[in-house]
Amino acid sequence: MLVPVGDVPSTGALPTQRQGAGAAADSMPETASWEWSPGSQELRWHEPMRAVLGMPSAEPEDVQAALRELIDPILLGPRCPGEVIDLEHTLRVPRRADRRFKIHAQWMAGYRSSAPVLGGTVTDITNANEGSTPSELRDRYRLLVELSPDAIVVHCEGEIVFANRAAVDIVRAGSVDDLIGHPVLSFVAAQSRAGMLERIADMSESDTYSEPAEAILQRVDGTTVVVESTSVRTRWADKPAFQAILRDLTHQRAAETSLRLSANLIQHVSDAIIALDVDGRISSWNPAAAALYGWEAGDAVGLPIDALLGADASGGSLLAMARGTRAELTHRRRDGSAVHVIVSIADIRDPAGAVSGSVLISADVSERRKAEQIRQQADARYSAAVAALDEGLLIIDVDDRVETANPAALVLLANLGLVGERFSSATALMDEDGRPLSAETIGLEEARQKGTARPAFTASLQRHDGSRTYLSVSIRALPTESGDGPFPVVMCLLDVTDRHAAAELLRFEARHDHATGLANRNLVLETISDLLRTPDMPVGVLFVDLDRFKMVNDSLGHDAGDAVLRTIARRLAYEAPAQSTVGRLAGDEFVLVVPDATVGEMQALANTLLSRLCEPVRILRRDLVVTCSIGIVVTEPGAGQGVRGRTNVGATDVLRDADVAMYYAKQHGRNRLATFDERFRRRAVDRLALEEDLRHGLDAGELSPAYQPIVELQGMVTTAVEALARWTHPRRGPVPPTVFIPIAEETGLIAPLGRLMLTRATQQVADWRSSGTVPDLVMSVNLSPRQLADPHVADRVSELLAARNLPASALTLEITESALMDDPELAAQTLTRLRNLGVGISVDDFGTGYSSLSYLRRFPVTSVKIDRTFVESLGETRDDDAMVAGIVNLAHTLGLKVVAEGVEKESQRQTLTDLGCDYAQGYLFSRPLPAEALTPLLGRS
Ligand code: C2E
Ligand code: CA
Ligand code: CA
What we know:
- The structure is a single chain.
- By secondary structure, this protein is of the alpha+beta class.
- Helix content is 38%, strand content 26%.
- The strands form seven sheets. Strands 29-30-32-33-34-35-36-37 form an eight-stranded mixed barrel, surrounded by five helices. Strands 17-16-21-20-19-18 form a six-stranded antiparallel β-sheet. Strands 2-1-5-4-3 form a five-stranded antiparallel β-sheet.
- Helix 16 crosses helix 20 and helix 25 runs parallel beside helix 27.
- The protein starts with 20 loop residues before the first helix and ends with a helix.
- The chain binds ligand C2E and calcium ion (2 copies).
- One calcium ion (CA) binds next to loops.
């Protein structure tokens, strides 16, 4: 409770009011009285209390609070009436200098025996110290100096005699003892010593001081510090001394530097930095602002910002922009053009925190915006292109979710709700054969973890209608920002169903013969390989080769040949047991592969085929009989298992063996079968070696003709010679023509050999004729079936004769009966041309074939050579004699001459002469001899 004193009656004796003389003297009241009763908690006071407390216009509450602070300590003590208490107290008043008061109080007996009452006075003694003693003063001063935040040192005669705490700190000393007694110059950096001494010298009189100057102090730890130093001349122990006050400038320097830096920055940054006053007028405009907007600082400063730059299209003032945010705006340049900028604005505040303006930062983003637009446009185009692709594209994130998928991908995968789903569970990708694929097996997981790419592979999908779509799938990891996995993955899908079907067709075609639809060599080999791998299963193979198919082809044309092949293929397929594979290897070679077959079964099958295949084939309105030769091979069970990994070699082995067997069947007279035997192989190998040698021998000139005379039986004179090929192999020795001629015939080497024989023989007969040995000697040269089929043979003969200047009658060509039968039409053609030249035509080995003499009428033949086998038995059986006689007679009626071959005995010669045979040839007369050996014998007879 507060009661102005004037309103209450006096409550007994109050301490004497000391209206001090001092107070009166400067009319400043020094003392005011007060009274406090604990019972009523009343604190009364009297004016001039406000003035004494130094708060002349304070509210009563504030006065009471100040008063309570002064007297509270008394209330804590004993409360004995009559007790006098004196104490001093400093009052702290915000934003005012501290004031010190003396309180004089006394406890007094209470009114009507109530509790004692405290009464007293307050005296302002703040300025009372002016009258203090010098020692008190020094103490105060020392305290002041000690606690000063500025470093203060006193030096006398060059030595430090006093230093305060701040001085110890500024030089980083441990205690004041590190300074006292030390030369003051030891704490001054060398470059500052001269300046310091100069300043001291200027202070000659007491109480003079130096202007603040910068100096560099040398610290105890070796570092330096820049300070502002002010010195005062004073006295210490009755000697002249200097007191230096040092203020650390480090922070100030830093602040200055940063200020300079900021200023510099503002000058050189590329962003426009514009300072505005509270009204939005420009107060600062940096060079970047000038460059951006086209206004120089001189023109811009002082103008309102909104008017200068043009408010944003939204109409808002720049000043209204939210602080701390950025906005993209369109401003106007001095030339009126628009510029896209990013703007931010911040308030500038004065030290008291009040807004004193704002700063605007503006950056040109036209380029960036343009680039952004281009990028957005490119993005849009790219997206459109991806959406239009026929290829499906999917991006699958690191969690296996489909992030995006273009329309083609959704269609290809037949899953329109794929996006957002887990790829691996939402698609039913399968491999080409319909086995399910997983993220691991397609390499998706690896791409995701390791960042790898998987080249295209074929996968498939089952459609609802049961059809299958084939997709070419490739997978590639997309880069991540960090470069580390896991990686998102892009998957490319391409519909390759058509391509797949085409490939399947190709695959079929690659394994089948176009003409007959049968398996081709590849598939046959594959089939045999597969069967060979089956344990405990013998594999039977029939190698079927048509006899004289070439003849059909050559004489009737390829269409007819193909028709024959198709017929044979049909018959083979018809006769083939279930499970077997029928194939055509090449030309007229067919194969039957029969799993799990015995030799007996295969032979029975071959026999069936032999009779079935040679049934007439009706082609071009004629019935053609095509026979075949069959080779049989049956493998040991599991034969292929030892050669796993090179199974095709196993299959080719089997096929080759069947071929060899077929060859033997053919050798032994065609239209037969032969079952493979190990010896076949050896012979085949031998034959192969011989073939090589023959080829080489022809080149090396190892072959040459021998000549055997043909004697006219009537006059017993040599009228002709037969040229017979001779081959002396350097190692093998003489190789008989019965061995090498068939090989030459088969391999085609007969062509060069035939040319050699014709060339040498015509040369030789020309020599013999011209040398007069036998002027009308005839040369007989054997013509092989192949030579007969050569359409150029007549021309070549004609050229040769012309070159040798020989009449055509000097040459007779011998053609075996079987060669005539192989292809009668072709033979007739060639022979006619030859005969037309005038060349003699002789049918060799007559009687061994099926031809009859009357059949020979179809050919322009001039003579027949009765085969040796008939001559051999002459005179032994009547039958043969009769037969030879028949031949001679018939031949003569046809106008043909008859030659007998292999005449070894005189008796044979005699019989032949008796039977009317025209000529004879044989060892009886001469063996075939080299030309030089024969020449001397020719003249004689
Ligand atoms: P070929 O044309 O019937 O020849 C007659 C064969 O009878 C020759 O056998 C000859 O040496 C042999 N010979 C002759 N007189 C007698 C005899 O009194 N007794 C016996 N046992 N044999 C006699 P060679 O020279 O071994 O020729 C065999 C076959 O080889 C020939 O039979 C012929 O078909 C073929 N040949 C030989 N040289 C050629 C050739 O240059 N071209 C062609 N295409 N075939 C040839
Ligand atoms: Ca002959
Ligand atoms: Ca003959």
